[in-house]
Amino acid sequence: MPDRLRAILGTATALSLAHPAALVAQPPQAPAAAPTRAALAARLDSIAAAYVREAPAAGVTVAVVRKGDTLLLKGYGERDRDQHLAADASTVYRIGSITKQFTAAAVLRQIQKGTIKLDDPITRHLPQYPQWSGVTVRHLLNHTSGIPSYTSQPAWRQKWAEDMTPAAIVAMVEKSPMDFPIGSAYRYNNTGYMLLGMLLEKVTGTPYGTVLDEEFFRPLGMRSAGICPSKPTDPSHALGYDYRGETWRPATYVSMTHPYAAGALCMSVPDYLRWQSALHGGRVVTPKSLALMVGPETLTAGEKNGSKIDYGMGLVSTSAGGRALIQHGGDINGFASQQYWFPADSLSVVAFVNTSGANQDWLAKNLAAAALGLPVTPLRPPVLPLASADREKYVGDYDLSLPDGRILPIRIYVENDQLVAEPESQSKQVMRFYGSDTFGMDFDPTLRVTFTVEGGAVTGGKVQQRGATMNLTRRQ
Question: What pLDDT score does 466 carry?
């Protein structure tokens, strides 16, 4: 593990969802006077260019399309740092978990045809998993199955260099206990979408990639779209990078057999725009099926039976600036992606990045805010003063629960009138106060530590980084 707190997740967030709450719902705000189209286009261009410098990101391709008018479609930075090849509008990226909406749409098309039913037990089509006989197709689509996610298993990361079948990957968790009773909770789950890909192949008799090509890519003219090659040779494909400790490195290799129906697709931004327009324009699935994709969905068991979750089936329903927003992001080794669709404004924002953990949500959020006439936010909030007496309440020993189940001890103390965090076996880092019991650190603009204060005492908190949220517990 690199000697920096930025590596607390390592690469455990590969294939992860850019968290639905990354764009926090905000109350409606009065829009400023509308800028001219030229001024708005220049503002969007400035935001994207600044992002590449400040995130930093090796390269990015972005699009902002409002009511059919393309305000911005452009690449920034480099798709290949060694060859100094510029990122441009046609650059092809790994899109990670944005793949899930394609998988969900393909499954829903089969439901429309009557080949499968939404509430079929998955064992009707995949009888080799009798331990999951109570799990339905719906549970897989909306992440309420309780089946453990293979990407949370430490053993999985040891196999990244190996080409593996979907069945071999599912085998990593098929004997594991359930995370929770079926239908009683939501937990983002890549195994569920792995199983959906296997189900599609079973009912169609066709490989997963071919299903998508025949159903979507060729009919919609998405020429760049397809299963990502593990070792791309086409120079239009971006290479993935990590930025650690002010050093650029090629992203850790992962065979693209691993993400499969949960995150294995590549495409350009213009091809994603073709998809998004067709999907929300009613040319991919029926209105009923699209409503299922968009959500929200409902828990069907347990204490929270009947509660809504904002995840639908491959897409997330949320809001921003008082406007309804449909979105889904993705992260996979060396790449980050985000797409927004504001239905009432006919506004699309897409950002594909070839750098891990480069805070694509900030870029998409601010491009959307500028297009909607709302305030933009800095990548790094202003650092606020913190009085000596206030610093002391945060001092103590904590345990951070990592996504793969490991516990990382962290000591927080005061040194030279600054609050410092020192993870076990890692270098100490100065904590920057942003207000409201929230701190950041200089090396990673995505990292936020938000403490929970009860009766004036800190009891723990949350750490958010690269789309993941982790619990921080204070030792007694």
Answer: 62
